[in-house]
Specification:
Number of strands: 23
CATH superfamily of the largest domain: Jelly Rolls
Structural class: mainly beta
Order of helices and strands: HEEEEEEEEEEEHHEEEEEEEEEEEEHHH
CATH architecture of the largest domain: Sandwich
Helix content: 10-25%
Radius of gyration: 21 Å
Oligomer: single chain
Number of helices: 6
CATH class of the largest domain: Mainly Beta
Number of domains: 2
Shape: globular
Largest sheet: 8 strands, mixed
Strand content: 25-35%
Length: 361
């Protein structure tokens, strides 16, 4: 008699069967993650699982050798890709007879339309290309636990395909209000140079943009902090994967009522995801503006859950009023002192005092 099966995790079972390394940590340096041959992808890879990823998302590192290409892929889960280093292209087989392709480089961002057949190519003959993808495979596999349904499904979703220009680095600006402005596209060639919009309510002259990618349920947004500044503390549910794009800095994380901070130092190539309802705050310590990309499940167009809807409605609203944000005057006094000390190590001066006036008594 076989033992009864229970507490099954179809996603974990699947990624363990893939034969590539699985790295799990609070924060991960994606540039140094060991990758090994990945038969399904036809390249090298590893799963990089953050502790705060929640139940719906995972991420993996894909390395394409010089002059290499991946095996054709098609799957019934959504995927947002950020290019860590290298250059190449991706070809897509359209629902119609015509395919599409686009060329990417370091700091490019793109989404793969749902269940479209695709293939990645490394255009360099001397250097590998390394990408990181954030996907909702855990949600899909846990819901259906059938690999043929996920990887062999013939369904097409033409509404996800987007306009031709969305694969050429163009898009549509959708004005809403500060913090909720959106850029609808499938491909952003260079996040470092992308124009952002001011968002005063999030603090210290910062700016941001929300992306609507391939009309998907996956969320992405990018924020920037000027030199000598930091954002206001905030919290939300799990799964927001933070990928630094430019500059360097650190983030502090803590649970309400706890005195100790968890510190994550970051720069391009790292990732972390704040755990569920853990306060966190981002600090720029570089001599240039610092940008980061955040990828999650459930966006402003399709929140998916009540938790995400609440997050997007309250991300610049004080926690005292039911929102997600801590105003500067309410933050722990240690936070600014730590920042001043950290900037001193980098020979930089803070540009925050006028914002903190009245809270530093």
């Amino acid at each position: 008699m076989t033992s009864p099966r229970y507490l099954i995790d179809p996603h974990r079972d699947f990624i363990e069967s893939e034969g590539v390394p699985i790295v799990e940590d609070f924060g991960i340096d994606l540039m140094t993650v060991e990758v090994k041959p990945w038969a399904r992808m036809g390249a090298l890879g590893a799963y990089a699982l953050t502790r705060g990823r929640g139940d719906f998302l995972d991420s993996y590192v894909l390395e394409i050798p010089p002059g290499g290409e991946t095996e054709p892929q098609r799957h019934l889960f959504e995927e947002v890709v950020y290019v860590l280093e290298g250059e190449g292209s991706t070809s897509l087989a359209a629902p119609s007879s015509e395919g599409r392709s686009f060329e990417w480089g370091a700091r490019s961002l793109f989404a793969l339309p749902l269940n479209v057949r695709y293939r990645h190519f490394n255009s360099s003959g001397s250097r590998p290309a390394r990408l990181v993808a954030t996907t909702n495979l855990p949600l899909v596999l846990k819901a259906f636990h059938n690999l043929d349904f996920v990887f062999g499904n013939p369904s097409v979703f033409p509404e996800r395909w987007g306009d031709d220009s969305h694969y050429q680095g163009e898009g549509n600006f959708l004005p809403v209000r500060p913090g909720r402005h959106q850029w609808e596209t499938n491909f952003v060639p260079d996040l470092a140079g992308f124009e952002l919009r001011e968002w005063k309510a999030r603090g210290a002259g910062g700016s941001n943009i929300m992306f609507v990618l391939a009309d998907g349920t996956m969320h992405a947004h990018m924020s920037e902090m000027p030199v000598g500044t930091y954002k206001k503390g905030h919290r939300h549910g799990a799964d927001f994967h933070i990928f630094p794009v430019t500059g360097h800095g650190y983030s502090l994380l803590w649970y309400e009522g706890h005195q100790d901070f968890v510190r994550i130092d970051w720069r391009h190539g790292s990732v972390y995801a704040p755990p569920d309802m853990m306060f966190h705050q981002h600090f720029n310590t570089s001599p240039a503006p610092a940008r980061y990309l955040a990828v999650a499940f459930g966006g402003l167009r399709y929140p998916f859950s009540g938790d995400k809807r609440k997050t997007f409605m309250g991300m610049d609203v004080n926690v005292r009023d039911g929102g997600c944000q801590i105003e500067y005057e309410d933050q722990d006094p240690r936070i600014h002192d730590l920042y001043v000390e950290e900037l001193r190590k980098h020979a930089l001066e803070p540009r925050m005092e006028h914002l903190l006036h009245g809270s530093r008594t």
